[in-house]
Structure formats: C-alpha cells, structure tokens
Amino acid sequence: MTTDSTGHTAGDPPRICVLLNAGSGKNDAERARAQIERAFDEARQPAEIRLLTKGSQIESGARGALGDGFDIIVAAGGDGTIAGIAGFLRGSGAAMGIIPLGTFNYFARSLDIPQDIAGATHLITAGAPRAVRVGTINGRTFLNNASLGAYPAILRTREETYRKWGRSRIAAYWSVLVTLATLRRPLRLTIDADGQQSTHRTPLAFAINNAFQLEQMALEGKEIIEKGQLALFVSPDTGRWGMLKSAAALAVGRAQRDVEFHLIAGNRITIEAHRSTSDVACDGERARMHAPFRLEAIPDELTVIVPAARQDGTR
C-alpha cells in the first residue's frame, strides 16, 4: 500500500472538492449545497464543499483546492465560474468536474453533462476523464467564447438587469436590445489569423471555441472547430439599426455569412486595436485588457469528467 505526498492511499476513492459559486443561477446556494451533498452521500463518495461568496474568490478557491491535493475539483456555477476555475486547473494534473448552475451552460451542454444538480453530481463519481482544448486571450482562459466591442457592453447591461429582475434568458435577450439601441463608436481592428491580415471597422468581434454554441446560434463554423481552430466572427459596421437587424437575424437563426458577419479562422489570432485598452468578455465575465489581443486554441489542455459516451467527438 502506497501513499502520495498528501497522504492519499492508492486505491482509495478520489478526493473531491466542490467550489460552489453562491452567486450563480437563482442565488439559492444553500439549496444547491444540500442537493450536492445528498447526491454525493447517495454515491457513497465523500466530498468537501467550499462556498465562494464573491467572484474574486474563484482564484483563491481554485488555488487552495489545488494546493490541498484534491484529485477532482468541481466547478459548480455558470460558464464564467467554470472558465475561471479551468484557468487554474489546466495543465495541473487535477481533473475538473462540472455542476452547471448558470443561464446558458454552453460548456456543460457541449459535453452532455446533465443540467440537473443530482445528475451532474452523480456523473462526477461515475463518469470518465476527457482532455479538452481551451481558448486563451492574452493568457486568460475561455471555454466557449471571447469578444470585444458590443458584447462586453451587453454584459454590463445584463448585470444591471439581473440585479433588478433576476436571472433568466428573457432578461439576457432584453439586455442585448437595450445595449445595441444605445451603442456608439465602432472598433477599428487589424486582424492577423495565422499570417492572414485584414482590417475592419466593427461593433463586435466574437471568437468561439465551442461547436455546440455555434449550432445553438445557427451559425456556420463547426468545421473550423473540428480542425482545432478558433472561429472569429466580425460584424460589419452597419450603424445602430443595422446592428439591431443583425441581432434579430441571429436570434431567429437566420444570420448570413458576409451579411451579418464575416468569418475568420485561425489557431492563433492577433487583434490590433486603435484603443490601447478595451473591455473583453470571456464566457460571460468582463475584464479590462491591453491591446494587442492574442487569441490561441490550445488542445488537450484541460481534463474534465464527462459521460463515457463523450470520450471523443467535437465539442
């Protein structure tokens, strides 16, 4: 019988730590915690649950769980929480479990992870590890998307709407309309994708790393994701009403290439901007970054517990 440096004996059940974001979903952290505890009890699997009461605790929570030597670190929250924790787990050797508690849950859905707490928790004890790729922008991890321009502004409006009316998809869509109706000043960008350069005047540049999200939005580009590249969508500068029209076309799944967007593919994409700093959105979380913006797709960088049937295939 052997033990590692943390005292974990070979053959023992994996040591599991759940990092639960109290602000995700319907903000009912105690109910979520009780459901998670019950599901682990039913699986006869011990797990430690650590509550994150602020977004700023994601970094310290992930670092602490890694330092304490847990085998599986579970991100319980929305896509932003999951991406934040993934940024510290990638390349660490620890596996990540997912309990989706957000509004859209694109990452979990792309891997067929159950959307209910009990199902997702049971999967952590019964599933299998899979290596998945991540995207980065200036070193920050994203799993689904990263964007410049209109979308970070939409997130500001969405946060205000959520505070007033609560979290829902209707509130999320409403924030899009409100923001686009008042948005000004398009971006001037020079984009280099694997050595191919182009210039754009645009209200929005949106990089996607998730084929499932593309399908949900009825957008082209799945073949780009299958090749291991990022799909970068750049909206033409059509003015305020043109943007509203494009948003409506996107909402009903009728956005057309070279009409509502230009599509650029690349493993490494560099975006030069006339502004030295800009808000960037990564999986629904905003950050201030300095130009140039360097995006990269990194294969097999993160290990995630998924259903056995999802050990391969495009995510």
Q: How many beta-strand segments?
A: 16
Binned strand content: 25-35%
Briefly, what CATH class of the largest domain? Mainly Beta
Helix content: 25-40%
Instruction: Give average pLDDT, whole number.
Output: 86
**Architecture of the largest domain in CATH?**
Sandwich
Major sheet details: 6 strands, antiparallel
Describe the protein in words:
It is globular and about 55 Å long. By secondary structure, it is of the alpha+beta class. Residues 1-7 have low confidence and may be disordered. It folds into two domains: 16-126, Probable inorganic polyphosphate/atp-NAD kinase, domain 1 (Rossmann fold, 3-Layer(aba) Sandwich), CATH 3.40.50.10330; 142-299, Sandwich (Tumour Suppressor Smad4). α1 runs parallel beside α5. The protein starts with 15 loop residues before the first strand and ends in a 9-residue tail after the last strand. The protein has a six-stranded antiparallel sheet. A six-stranded antiparallel sheet has the order 12-11-10-7-14-15. It has helices spanning 29-42, 57-67, 79-89, 106-110, 117-126, 150-165, 169-182, 211-216, 222-226, 239-251, and strands at 16-21, 48-52, 72-77, 95-100, 128-137, 140-142, 145-149, 187-193, 196-202, 204-208, 230-234, 262-266, 268-273, 277-282, 285-290, 293-306.
Task: List the main descriptive attributes of the protein structure presented here.
disordered N terminus, Rossmann fold, 10 helices, six-stranded antiparallel beta sheet, Tumour Suppressor Smad4, 315 residues, alpha+beta, 2 domains
